[in-house]
Structure formats: C-alpha cells, structure tokens
C-alpha cells in the first residue's frame, strides 16, 4: 500500500517536472528581443472570427516578435460583445462595422496611434475613413465585402435572380431550395432593401412592412435558416439559392464552378470588419504592432488567400484578383454604388428587430 | 467518522460558488430592470408579464414541452425493450452491449449531431441509398422529424442505462416464484418486473425530459430554425438581443417548470412503491 502511494507521488512529480521543464524551454527559444523590454508585455490576446486568418499568420507573428498569442474565436459580433461585457480581457478584437460603432459609443475602445501603423497608407480607398470612424481613430479594416445572392446556375435562372433581386427568395419556383441567414440583421437588411428602404431605418411602418415581407418569404419558399451550413450546402449542391457574405461566396465559387454571385440592384450591405484595441488592453504597443503586421503585403495576401474574404490592403486585393481569385466575381465587392449602405449601430431598434425575427422564425 | 464529515466543507463552498451564486444572479436579473447599478436596483415583474402575455412565447413553450414529451415517450418505447433484453442475457454479452451503448457517449454530442446532417440531408446517405433503389428523395433535414430523431438518438442511452440498472438489480427469485405459482409470462412481467423497474423508468424520464426540454443546439443544427424551442429563445435573448433580464426571466420560468416536473415524477415514483 505504502509503495503504491510512493509510486503515485513520484509519477506526479515526473509529470509536473516535465511540464515545468517545457515551460523553461518555451521561454528560452529564439530570444534576440525581449518583448517585455520593448512592449512591456509578452502575451497578446487576440479575439477573432472563426476561419478568418491565414495559415501561418499567428505563428509567424509569435516568432518574429518573440511573443505568445492567445488566439480565440467567436461566431458572431454579439457573442464577442457579450464576452467583452462579461469582463474578458483582450488586446485585439476584429468585429464588424456596426459593432465597432457600438463599442466606440460605449467608450470601450482605445484610440489608435496611427504613427505606429505606417502600413495603413496601403488600405483600399473603399475602406478608409468609413462613416462610423471617419478618421480611423479607433479601427483599421481587416476584411471587407458585400452581402449578395448566391445561386446554382444549373437550377436557378440567372434572369430570375438579376431581375427580381432579393425578391427571388419569394419566388415559389424555388421552394425548398433557399438558405437564409439565421440573423435578424441580415434578414431585415434584405427585406428593407427589397422594399426600397434604408436598412438603417427607424420607421416602424417600414420595419413592419419588412416583417410582412419576411413572412411572405417563409410562406413562399420555406427557407432554411442557417449560418455556416450555407457554405457547405451550396458547395455540395444541397440547395441552389441563398443569401451570403461575399467572402464565403468566393470560397464556394472556387470549389463549385456552377455557382454565381449577384449583388441586387436595389442595393445591399457593404460591410467591413476592423481591428480595434479595447480600452482595458494592457498590451497596447504590441497590439499596434499586430495591426501593422496584418497590413504587411505578405500577411494580408496570405490571410485573404486562405479564407476568400477581400483584403483591406489594396495591393494584396489586386494581386489576388489576378491570381487565386481570378474570375471569381464575389472577391470583388461592388464599389461606390449609390444604394449600397453600411450598417450603423441603432441601439433603440435592437429589441424591435430581434423580437420580430423571433416571430418570423416561430411562424409556421 | 466525525473527522471525515469535515471533508464536506470544500464541497459546500464549491456548490455555493458555482451553483448557488449563478442561480441567485439569474433570479436577480429576472426580477430587475436593465441598466441597474449595484446599489440602485429597480425591481419589476415586467419580464414575467411580458412572457405570459405574449402568445408567441407561450407557443414556443408549448412547442418545447411537446417535443420533449414525444422524445421521452419514444425513448421509453425504445429503451425499455432494449434494457429488458440486455438484462436477460448472460453477464458477458450484456456487458458488451452496455459498452456499445455507452461508447458513442464518449464522443462529443455536438459532433454526433453534426454527423446526422450528413446522414439526413437531401444528398446524404439515406437519400443516396433510396435513390439507388429508385425511390423518391425524402426531405428529412430541417423538419420536426429530424429534431426529434436527433434528441432521441442523443438521449436514449440515459434511458437504457437507468432501466437496465434497476432491472439487473431486481431479485430474480421473485420471477421464479411467480412462475412457480402459475402466472404466465405476461402476468409475471406486468405484476413483477414492470413495477420493480419503475424507479429506473422514472429516473430515465428525468434524465431524458430535462435535457430535451432545454436543448438548443439540436433544434438549431437539425431544425434549421424551423423549430424554435425555449432554449433557442434564451440563447437569442442573451447573445443576440443582449436583454439579459428577459433572458433570465425565461430561464427562471424554465427552471420552475423543470423543478415542478421533477417533483411530480418523484411523487409518482413514491406512489408506485406504496
């Protein structure tokens, strides 16, 4: 009996010592620069969307700057916001436009020192100084794109899509073939746009009309409300028609040549996701370095090449347009189109939209 | 013995931090308005009134209970015979079957549920086989059928294990006595085996009904938003809307319903034994 205890204790010690040893080695690698001295910290907490970064981006950053990156993922802006409210500490976040605006309004972001981000000069003109952050005081775009209709040209007629725009989701011809996002934001955007209203409206009559429009869609084509399943479902041909973010469409187009992407004439949502530093970050200098690093040509190129979303760095976008994503329409979001809009944060309408959306989903 | 009773103290601390405190927070959130400071709490019953005065929420609640009840009934229908036959087998065979039933539970539930998408989808395994034999494609994904199937699949092991446990610890000599005294097999089953296995069925019901009624990712993955359950509602209010007060109120209503149903099953259990 006593022997067993001794064996158990020595086993524990062995395992413990091995881990302790690894920790020492961990710190001992490379080590030309001491990040503690240069940046005052050696760990960066990055919170990003899932599948939203190049294969070696994080690893290379760790090596180059001799630091450790805690890289965690979120699935929606709201999820990120909830975590942030819950007191989690991050140094870099990459939320979407309207969420950046909300964080700005709630005084949760630290202003950027643009002199530490020289690469910002290479940004694509379409994503510089957007309405919610005209001087790029708080945010630097990472990816951008549009929302559009993705369809299988062997099943859905191009003419229907191009003449009907978002109303094609109401076309009974395509009943059972439709994917929509399980998101009130994207759904009401498409409804309001289809009706010719602004997607940032606060007019309750217009919103109610959009709600009726969504009910009609549900009635006519019985769509499936999904998220990332749309990517798989469209690539494999499970369904033939759907709403989608341009970057995901670019990926689908690159694996299935029958897929087309269309931005409706009534206008759509032009969005961008930007890198921001939350106010409670204690690693600001290194965070600036990370933002600048992501705007280096190679890094931006690899990120965008990997995931299919449009690079915010103009040079990388141009190279990919003529390279990997040559001939893939979804890689080039529409620019300077009058009826396209950017989402604004509208806290008063949040509950209205989400309650109506629950009603749409619960309706049978 | 007295010495050991002190060992319970860490457990009490653990329970109060990780079970009691969150529960109290939910109650606090549910009964206050949003935008409170720590010192200026404003109590309200609005969240509850809002839930019960809107037909929409009531329908979601009824839908959840309906699906959970159907799931539980199917689990009994499948689980009871399975457990019964396993307990009839010799120990070795029974152990292998029990192992086979528990084996999938070692894999994450989310992964197993995702696998069903590949099986049920329009160009999935089942439809491919049907197509091969010239049958027409059946729409299974994103229907109520898929949701219930996913739940039954995920929760039926709990039922089997519970019933099997109570069947296998049953005193076999009672069955022998019954046979000896001239009861036929049906009578023996109805008068001896079934009543003695009821505690297993009851705890099986608790273990299946509770997760089924509050499940949110199975309807999300397999129902495609066509089946909105109370769990999805809570998730929406916490994550998307950011209305933690109303979300907490729904959670609290849910918790009360669950506690009430547990109380009922306990009652039935006791009544059966008297």
Summed up, what is this model?
Chain A is an alpha/beta fold and 364 residues long. Chain A folds into two domains: 32-144 and 271-321, D-Maltodextrin-Binding Protein, domain 2 (3-Layer(aba) Sandwich), CATH 3.40.190.10; 146-270 and 340-362, D-Maltodextrin-Binding Protein, domain 2, CATH 3.40.190.
Distinct helical segment count of chain A: 14
Report the helical percentage of chain B. Answer: over 70%
* Unreliable residue runs of chain A: none
**In percent terms, what proportion of residues of chain B is strand?**
under 5%
Summarize this structure as a short list of keywords or feature phrases.
heterodimer, A: 364 residues, alpha/beta, D-Maltodextrin-Binding Protein, domain 2, 2 domains, three-stranded parallel sheet, 14 helices, B: 274 residues, mainly alpha, MetI-like fold, 13 helices
Describe the structure in your own words.
The complex is a heterodimer of chains A (364) and B (274). Chain A is α/β, with parallel strands linked by helices and 364 residues long. Chain A has helices spanning 2-28, 35-39, 57-65, 77-85, 97-105, 158-164, 184-194, 204-221, 229-235, 246-255, 284-294, 297-307, 314-321, 350-362; strands spanning 43-49, 68-74, 92-93, 139-152, 178-181, 224-226, 241-245, 259-262, 270-276, 310-311. In chain A, the strands form two sheets. In chain A, strands 4, 5, 6, 7, 8, 9 and 10 form a seven-stranded mixed beta sheet that branches. The relative contact order of chain A is 0.17. Chain B is an all-alpha fold. Chain B has one domain (50-273): MetI-like fold (Orthogonal Bundle). Chain B has 13 helices and no strands. Chain B has helices at residues 2-5, 8-30, 46-53, 55-88, 91-102, 109-120, 125-132, 144-168, 172-180, 185-214, 217-223, 230-240, 244-273. The mean pLDDT of chain B is 89. The chains are: A alpha/beta (364), B mainly alpha (274). The A-B interface holds A 76, 78-79, 81-82, 176, 182-184, 224-226, 229, 233, 236-239, 350-351, 354-355, 358-359, 361-362 and B 56, 59-60, 117, 121-123, 139, 141-142, 220, 224-226, 228, 233, 236-243.
